[in-house]
Write a structure and sequence with these properties.
mainly alpha; 5 helices; 123 residues
């Protein structure tokens, strides 16, 4: 059980750090706004992403949240990473940067798998 907790919290903390903390701290920088514009999205879309990412991270890291809400948060982050890949590939062409979200999907998958292993042991 200890290994499962360590893997879950490590993966979940990495997602929380990059999708919650870093997003909140850097979302209003000119570089972040230019990144959203570069991909062809309006500025308000970037603001909405920040809000939903922070809410999703809170759902993932607060243990007593309903299981269904956690499932939606995992799904939302999965969609976010997939569409980030598609957006970068469509705008900049297929290159190394296009596949960076796959790393995030892998980390998210570890969190998801070990979340289910932990709740299965509690039953």
């Amino acid at each position: 059980m200890k290994k499962e907790k360590i893997l879950f919290w490590t993966a979940t903390s990495l997602i929380a750090l990059f999708e919650g903390v870093m997003t909140a701290l850097t979302s209003q920088t000119e570089m972040a706004k230019e990144g959203i514009r570069h991909l062809g999205y309006p500025e308000y879309f970037g603001n909405a992403l920040v809000i939903f990412k922070i809410l999703g991270v809170l759902v993932l890291i607060i243990p007593p949240m309903p299981k269904r809400l956690k499932e939606w948060a995992y799904a939302g982050f999965t969609f976010d990473f997939i569409f980030a890949m598609i957006s970068h590939g469509a705008v900049d062409g297929i290159n190394g940067e296009t596949f960076i979200p796959l790393i995030a999907i892998g980390i998210l998958a570890v969190s998801y798998i070990y979340y289910h292993k932990l709740i299965a042991k509690k039953i």
